Structure formats: C-alpha cells, structure tokens
Amino acid sequence: MSSTLARRAAAGIARALRPSAPALEASAILGALPVPVVVLDADNRFRFANPPAELFFQLSVASLAQHTLGDLIPTDSRVFSLVEQVRATDAPVSDHDLVLESPRLHRQGVSVRGAPLPELSGGVVLTLQDGSTAQKLDRQLTFRGAARGASAMAEMLAHEVKNPLSGIRGAAQLLESSASEGDRELCTLIQDEADRIRNLVERMDMFSERPVECAPVNIHEVLDHVRRVAERGFAAHINIHEDYDPSLPPVWGNRDLLIQVLLNLVKNAAEAAPPVGGEIHLMTAYHHGVRIAVPGSSERVDLPLQISVRDNGGGIPDEVRASLFDPFVSTKRGGQGLGLALVAKLVADHGALIECDSRPGRTVFRLSMPIAPAVPVSRPFPIDA
Ligand SMILES: Nc1ncnc2c1ncn2[C@@H]1O[C@H](COP(=O)(O)OP(=O)(O)OP(=O)(O)O)[C@@H](O)[C@H]1O
Ligand SMILES: [Mg+2]
Asked: pLDDT of 130-159, one tens digit each?
C-alpha cells in the first residue's frame, strides 16, 4: 500500500472534517477508529486500511495492497453495487444486514457505508460493521450479567430463606394437631405459603453456577419430547406445527438443559397464543455465517444450528422488552418472571445465542447453537468465558 496515497486519502477525510487538520492527525484518527475503514481507488484496489479493517479481512495492510475488493468479496455482493452507486451519485450510500460469504469471510448482518473521496478520482471510503453480531454479543453479555445476578440471588435465598422456612412449616404442622377448627385453617395456610416459597427458592436454585456437561444431542428428539409434554399439559389447546431440517447434524449441548430451555419458550408461546386459533411453530435450520467471538479470547465460535419457537400471540409487551431476560420480569398474573432469565443463563452456559423478534401476531425466539465436534471432547463450555 502506498503510504503517500494513504496519507492523501486520510488528508482528504481530514479536510472534510476540518479544513486545516494535518494529514498525520487524520491517519491517526482513522487508525484509532474501532470500525473497519478502507479506501478503494477507481479500480477497487485497496489504497488504505486501518487496523480493524485488517482484522475484518484477516489480511495485513501489505497484503490488502496486493488485492482488489473483488478478490475478497464475491463480485455479485451488494457491496459492489453500493460502491458503484457512490461513484455514480457522488454521495454517501449505506446498506445494512449484508451477507459476506467467501472462503475468507463469513459475515452476516454487516452494515456497509460508502462515501466519495474527491481527492482520489473514483475513490470511495468504505466502513464495514459487523452489526448484528456486535448487537448479539452485547445482548448476550447483558444476559450473562442478568444470569449472574440471579445466581447470586439463588445462593442468598437458599441460605437465608430455605432453612428457616422448613422450621416455620414444621412449627405450623405441630400447632395444627392441637389447634381449634378455625386456627387449623390458618396453620394450613402457613404450610401452603411455605411450600409456595420453597418452590420458588428451588426454581431459583437452577440459577446456581454448575459446569454444563455437553454431548452430541439430536435436537429433533429434544423438540419431540418438548412437544409431547406441551400437548399433554399447558399447550393442549394449541396447534403445534413442525418445520424441521432432517439433515441437521447433532448440536453440542446438554439434553436435559436444552429441554428446559425449549419447554420455557414453548410454555411462554402457549401462554401468549390466543385461546382459540393458537399456533406454535417449531423450526430447525442450518444458517451459514453465524459466528461470535468468545468473550475474553480471540476464538470465534460458529453457531449455525437454528432452533426457533414462533407463536401468533399479541407480541412482547412494550414495558418488558428492554428487560425481557432479567429475573422477576413478568406481565402475567402469578408469573414469577424466571422462565426467560433461566433460558438466558442456560443458553450462555452453552456458549450459544438467543434472540427475540416480536410484533403483534408473530413472536419468534431464535436459538443459535454450535454443532457437536466430529470427535467430541469431554470438556464443558466455560460458564463465564
Ligand atoms: N412468546 C411470548 N409472547 C409474548 N410475551 C412474552 C412471550 N414470552 C415472554 N413474554 C413476556 O416476557 C415476560 C417474561 O417471561 P418469563 O418466561 O421470564 O416469565 P413468566 O412467563 O411471566 O413467568 P414464569 O416463566 O416464571 O412462570 C412474560 O411475563 C411476558 O410478558
Ligand atoms: Mg415463562
């Protein structure tokens, strides 16, 4: 890459920002930006790339200088029409949610912004942002935080509530034998309430930190099990449809915990679906390019197996959208608000992702899971990588 051209390109941007800014300062600004930025010339050769762009294309600046955009991104990609549009209109153009698939790149949900660079004939400045992955990761980290909060709460509850509670229950039972008719009723009430609180505490106990033992799991067998449980109980009045990709390889997970995750999602779907005409769709599919960075390491994990639960209910109420996966968030009468918090925790323990798209009449919870390795290793996923 010609450093003179890079400096000239940077100078052009600097002038646009502040006419007198020195070129060096502009290079430094571009270099420090956390977003990948490249400059293309009229032949789509790379004339500038900042360090995040090197990471994005997984090529050094020196190697990028030997390439054109067409060497790295399929020429039928929308990025090319965007670049042409920038040149034709001489104005900035943005495009979102692009898929960049090539032997080198596997990116989905990329936002690309292009702007003309008058200093370089036919020059275009491109910023590329791996939008949806960043958002997913952000949300995932939030869920981990929520789960961690709930697990601390679980320990506290077990310690401070469960033990004294059994004493209270035992005392009420003792009193009952010698109590009058009216007081016996009160003793029963105390015992029932103590049982209810113990159930809640036991549910909270599922949040405590334990390593997840993973193995290859046939997700369709898990979904069949969940469907049978649902149809015999809470979803007896709902039509459950299956749309499975039978060629899916096994997922890498813990069967019992995955059942728990899916039961919670299907139960919520059944509770949201209308009493008449309620529909739930269970879907599985293979999606290329869903990769996330493992927090705290340079490793990236592929999560190509998608499992979705869709319902035709009224949608997620606005007041809980922002805190959907937090514990004790509920809009239901008698709801504990623990289902999705537990889902978030178990999904994070699996190193997987969960997302939700919701509008009135259509709510989808989408779980992205890793494939079981060809030779399974008997190590659990890190609970908190
Ligand atoms: N499929 C859905 N459609 C509409 N709203 C939903 C759906 N799933 C969850 N919600 C909303 O998110 C809230 C939290 O769900 P969560 O499963 O955590 O708790 P809950 O179902 O209220 O109680 P619990 O699961 O502890 O019995 C629900 O109260 C509801 O408002
Ligand atoms: Mg629930």
From this structure: 765 455 555 555 555 666 666 666 766 766
Q: How far is CA 149 from CA 154, 157, 178, 345, 381, in A?
A: 9, 12, 43, 10, 20
* Angle made by CA atoms 280, 282, 287, in degrees to the nearest 5: 140
Buried b (16+ CB within 10 A) or exposed e, 265-294: bbbbbbbbbeeeebebbbbbeeeebbbbee
Digit-coded pLDDT (tens) for 218-250: 999 999 999 999 999 999 999 999 999 999 999
How many A from CA of 238 to the centre of ligand 1? 17
Measured from CB, residues less than 6 Å from any atom of ligand 1 are 264, 268-269, 272, 311, 313, 315-317, 320, 324, 329-332, 335-341, 363
Task: Report pTM.
Answer: 0.60
187, 141, 243, 103: which is closest to 195 by C-alpha? Answer: 187
* Contact assessment for residue 98 and residue 104, using Cβ atoms and an 8 Å cutoff: no
Q: CA 296, 297, 301: angle at the middle one, nearest 5?
A: 110
d(CA 108, CA 129): 10
> Which atom of ligand 1 is closest in space to residue 327's alpha carbon?
18
- CA of 339 from ligand 1 middle (Å) equals 7
Nearest ligand to residue 362 Cα = 1
Reduced to 3 states (helix: H, G, I; strand: E, B; else coil), residue 232 is helix
Does residue 130 contact residue 109 with C-beta atoms inside 8 Å? Answer: yes
- If you write DSSP's letter for every residue of 259-299 in order, what string do you get? HHHHHHHHHHHHHHS-SSS-EEEEEEEE-TT-EEEPTTSS-
Q: CB atoms < 10 A from the CB of 264, how many?
A: 20
Query: Degrees (nearest 5) of the Cα angle 133, 139, 142?
Result: 145
**What does the longest C-alpha to C-alpha distance in the chain come to?**
97
